[in-house]
């Protein structure tokens, strides 16, 4: 899998949470979470609940830093149930 494909997968998985790709890595770095692009993109597909937990951590870090927007706060009120997962891929 290429770098562009992983980035596209992450951007697609982050969109329902109101986050962008650079926000994810910047805030994970602030929290000393060392997950790379490959691991996060695989997690978005195969471990959607874990990925959702990571996005929640990023959103909380943004709040701490004062970067959270009204859209971020609204997303917490109406969370997305899942991201494209392995059960969806089965035929």
Give an account of the 3D structure:
The chain has helices at 3-14, 21-30, 37-46, 48-64, 70-77, 86-89. Helix 1 (3-14) packs across helix 3 and helix 2 crosses helix 4 (48-64). The model is unreliable at 77-85 (pLDDT under 50). The longest helix has 17 residues, at 48-64. With 91 residues, it is an all-alpha fold.
Principal-axes shape call: globular
Mean pLDDT: 80
Number of strands: 0
Kindly provide the radius of gyration, computed on alpha-carbon positions and rounded to a whole number of angstroms: 13 Å
Helicity range of the residues?
Answer: 55-70%
Low-confidence stretches: 77-85
Helical segment count:
6
Distance between the termini: 22 Å
Q: Class by helix and strand content?
A: mainly alpha
Order of helices and strands: HHHHHH
The protein's oligomeric status is single chain
Largest sheet: none
- Strand coverage percent: under 5%
Helix/strand layout:
Layout: H1 3-14, H2 21-30, H3 37-46, H4 48-64, H5 70-77, H6 86-89
Name the features.
single chain; 91 residues; mainly alpha; globular
At a glance:
Helices cover 67% and strands 0% of the residues.
């Amino acid at each position: 899998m290429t770098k562009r494909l992983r980035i596209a997968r992450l951007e697609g998985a982050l969109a329902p949470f109101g986050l962008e790709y650079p926000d994810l890595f910047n805030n994970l770095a602030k929290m000393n979470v060392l997950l790379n692009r490959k691991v996060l993109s695989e997690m978005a597909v195969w471990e959607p609940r874990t990925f959702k937990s990571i996005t929640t951590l990023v959103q909380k870090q943004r709040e701490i830093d004062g970067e959270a927007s009204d859209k971020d706060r609204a997303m917490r009120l109406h969370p997305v149930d899942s991201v494209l997962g392995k059960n969806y891929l089965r035929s």
